[in-house]
Amino acid sequence: MDTPLTRRRFLRTGAAGAVLSLAGCRSATDGRGDAGEATSESTPTPVPTPDETGTYAPTPSGPEPYPNRPTEPDREAAVEFARAFERTRAYNKLHAENVEDISVEGAAGHDRAAHGGHYVLATATGYANYADDVHADWGQLPVLYFVSPGLVVRPGDYRDRSFDCSEVFASEDSAENFATPCEGQWASYRVHNFDTATHQLTVSVALTTDGGSSPVLDREYTVEPTGSVQQESVTYRRGTYRVRAETASGATATADWRLDGSPEFQRPLTVLLTPVGDLRIRRVPFGSVR
């Protein structure tokens, strides 16, 4: 017999693509609105268009020129391009007319080769000093790039989905939970669209047990090109979950998601809409460049 289960939820801002800002009266953000802002599911996402190099990515303007997409990127060229691109984005976001000093560094690491290109993780850190003793720090979790001869995609514009902590999925037996509801971190997953088309996507999560399965979460998303979703508030309970994703066009992917400890120390589960229009679900080692 299954242990009785409850649903619990919480509303908070996610950190999937967040930028740490300690800037006096100045705020550094990463294309997600004001720092600390939670966006709703109905918030429209601007549809990006590629630049002349075939790059799909949010590119804030500034004095630093963006690197050219490599025409025949091998592993090393793809990693260097993503590192330089991410550093340039951070530099241009920090730059302002009254800036007095900027220092930004980029880092990148190879994820895997697939779909005719390379998936690369990149991040940037730095700071800027402005007139009137204003200071801003830039700190960012790694971003997953796709770099190929004909296309570069950098998902951005994270849209956080979360709800009340009292309704996040959990067991009535506290020993079966990896965190105390409303006091610890719940599990989350990410959705990235590397395709150049908008996709309607459904993701369902169910806890699998000897007696069958228990529904946990069922969500629908509209994900624009380069769009991303951070789905917070999934579960507090240890166990193996079956995750199923399906697009409106009928592409499907299924994966088992084992949660045996705090999600803080595990690689996030990621649903990928690939550059060739199909679906993948896998753990992406976002911490590999930190």
Give me the secondary-structure topology.
Elements: E1 5-6, E2 19-20, E3 55-56, H1 75-94, E4 99-114, E5 117-130, E6 134-140, E7 143-147, E8 152-153, E9 158-161, E10 170-171, E11 189-193, E12 199-209, E13 212-223, E14 228-231, E15 239-247, E16 252-259, E17 269-273, E18 279-283
Parallel strand pairs: 3-8, 9-14, 11-17
Antiparallel strand pairs: 1-10, 2-6, 4-5, 5-6, 5-7, 7-8, 11-14, 12-13, 12-15, 15-16, 17-18
Describe the structure.
By secondary structure, the chain is mainly β. It folds into 2 domains: 19-153, no CATH class; 158-289, Immunoglobulin-like, CATH 2.60.40.1120. Helices cover 7% and strands 40% of the residues. It has 1 helix and 18 strands. The protein has one helix at 75-94; strands at residues 5-6, 19-20, 55-56, 99-114, 117-130, 134-140, 143-147, 152-153, 158-161, 170-171, 189-193, 199-209, 212-223, 228-231, 239-247, 252-259, 269-273, 279-283. Strands 2, 3, 4, 5, 6, 7 and 8 form a 7-stranded mixed β-sheet that branches. A 5-stranded mixed β-sheet has the order 9-14-11-17-18, with no helix packed on it. Strands 13-12-15-16 form a 4-stranded antiparallel β-sheet, with no helix packed on it. A hairpin with a 4-residue loop joins β15 (239-247) and β16.
